[in-house]
């Protein structure tokens, strides 16, 4: 965003991400900036990359920042009334995983939708690209290309939020400071292995932060997904797709039920939708599972 003539750099909002660690790791670092200011114009405490790491600075001309995934808040007031569709049933159950004072990292889709129904408690959302304190999507016309989440969607931040580099973000994640990771899955095995980042033969940009998010000790990992995909099993004895992590999933929430993954046991059915039976869940699940002696109806958030 800005450099002084000595080469000290300042990044704006979530644009820090991997720029700071990359600048410090490079043998030759060339920084393209929007503005070059005189030495002394940037307060020392505001410098993100000290000039010792920077070899050349280049002021961009006519540069236009692009928004890859413009995402804005719908103008309708309040949250959408949830139905009993499979997707909404998962959202209503997933929303019950949040507790007061929690730090959470949420995947795109159902996990982020569940966050819309947090009420009466404080949950601080973290994004791998360097944001703590994510707010709702911006209203149309207020979006900022320097304020995006790890999925490249435009976002806002709440009072008390902070920005930092991606290496600091992953220190939070790997250090077990994130209480809950909720994300989607392509497949989950009976022992809690997760495959959620690649289907062979399809173009993908990479695993992203999922490998670190699910691999951190002290973080509860909840997978939200539809129970089957066009009739194909997704909960399997062993995953057939490339793995994101082994023995990392703590809980699976689907429209049919909730499974907990218990070490030394495997899958344990703990909640069952009123429209399902144990036999119908067995038919839809390739992996074997135990039934809890405290089995209860699938819990749902009242909205």
Please, could you describe this protein's structure?
With about 300 residues, the chain is of the alpha/beta class. The protein has 6 helices and 20 strands. The chain has helices at about 20-25, 85-95, 110-115, 165-175, 210-215, 280-285, and strands at about 1-5, 10, 30-35, 35, 55-60, 100-105, 125, 130-135, 155-165, 180-185, 185-190, 195, 220-225, 230, 230-235, 235, 250-255, 255-260, 265-270, 290-295. The strands form 5 sheets. The chain has a 10-stranded mixed beta sheet with strand order 9-8-7-6-10-13-17-18-19-20. A hairpin with a 3-residue loop joins strand 17 and strand 18. The longest helix is centred in the first third of the chain and has 9 residues, at about 85-95. The chain starts with a strand and ends in a 6-residue tail after the last strand. About 35% of the residues are buried. The model has no long low-confidence stretch (mean pLDDT about 95).
């Amino acid at each position: 965003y800005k450099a002084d003539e000595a080469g000290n750099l300042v990044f704006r909002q979530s644009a820090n991400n991997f720029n700071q660690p990359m600048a410090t790791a490079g043998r030759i670092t060339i920084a393209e900036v929007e503005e070059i200011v005189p030495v002394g114009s940037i307060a020392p405490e505001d410098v993100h990359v000290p000039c010792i790491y920077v070899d050349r600075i280049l002021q961009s001309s006519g540069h236009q920042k692009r928004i890859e995934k413009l995402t804005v808040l719908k103008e309708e007031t309040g949250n959408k009334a949830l139905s009993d569709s499979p997707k909404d049933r998962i959202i209503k159950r997933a929303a019950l995983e949040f507790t007061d004072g929690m730090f959470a990292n949420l995947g795109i889709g159902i996990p982020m939708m569940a966050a819309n129904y947090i009420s009466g408690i404080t949950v601080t959302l973290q994004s791998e690209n360097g944001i703590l304190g994510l707010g709702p999507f911006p209203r149309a016309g207020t979006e900022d290309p320097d304020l995006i989440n790890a999925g490249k969607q435009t976002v806002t931040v709440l009072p008390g939020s902070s920005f930092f580099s991606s290496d600091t973000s992953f220190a939070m994640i790997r250090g077990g400071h994130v209480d809950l990771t909720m994300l989607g899955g392509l497949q989950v095995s009976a022992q809690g292995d997760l495959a959620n980042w690649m289907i062979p033969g399809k173009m993908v940009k990479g695993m992203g932060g999922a490998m670190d998010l699910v691999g951190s000790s002290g973080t509860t990992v909840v997978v939200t997904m539809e129970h089957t995909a066009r009739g194909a099993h997704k909960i399997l004895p062993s995953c057939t797709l490339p793995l994101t992590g082994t023995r990392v999933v703590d809980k699976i929430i689907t429209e049919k039920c909730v499974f907990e993954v218990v070490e030394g046991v495997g899958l344990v059915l703990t909640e069952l939708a009123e429209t399902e039976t144990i036999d119908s869940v067995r038919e839809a699940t390739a992996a074997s599972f135990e039934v809890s002696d405290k089995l209860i109806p699938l819990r749902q958030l009242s909205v």
